[in-house]
Task: structure prediction
Amino acid sequence: MANFIAVKNIRIGVGTPKICVPMTGNTVEDLLAEAELIQLNKNFVDMVEWRVDFFNDSEDLSKVMTALSTIHQRLKELPLVFTFRSLEEGGEKEIHPSYYFDLNEAAAKSGMVDLVDIELRHRDEDISQILSIIHENGRLGILSSHNFAKTPSKDKMVEILERGKKLGGDIPKIAVMPTSARDVLALLEATVEMQEKHPDTPIITMSMAGQGAISRLSGEVFGSSVTFGALKKASAPGQVQVSDLRRTLEILHHSLQK
Ligand SMILES: O=C1C[C@@](O)(C(=O)O)C[C@@H](O)[C@@H]1O
Result:
């Protein structure tokens, strides 16, 4: 099995972590402006995440699909992640679970997104079902977990990432909040352990806020394959500006070649 996943022109899991920019617009106009900004900063962006929970009309499936098509038209060449982040996991709003799955199913079937983010807080059978739909439609599933209150133990974080893998997720992901430098170390250690145990599975990990920012820069050393960077507005605490991110990732990459 390859230790990377190829999506459009990028290979997730090999070389520098890929820079993913979240789009957080509330309206189609905002999203258009963000798409334009991304085009202007192409050199710093490897992939894009549409954070659908920020969109004012996220509860109207047909408006979501229209907005998605607008984004897709503007940013076709970049891999696109479709994410509805729920309030409980640090997102903007809560929706009924049945609508959550309908929304993700529609995105998976639309042919306009490359990856769909599914939260691990749902039941195994529901996650497996939506993942089958994602895979039948030739898309990839990120299985994610977020803890904005604390950093669980290293073993617990490995367990969460392993559940994502066991359920068939292509890329397990975890974001946690540190309250000490040791929490950041625990996240990094969980990342290394996961990579040692499952070298063929790319993962995404981050420790949030200022204290955790080092984890957003050091993915190539410890084993996180994607880093979320801010262009205009950060979608989570601790995100670094994409130009700084690109420069730092390259410095670390060159050091690793020596
Ligand atoms: O899951 C993540 C990671 C994230 O929360 C971060 O900490 O960078 C940002 C979100 O937009 C994304 O969906």
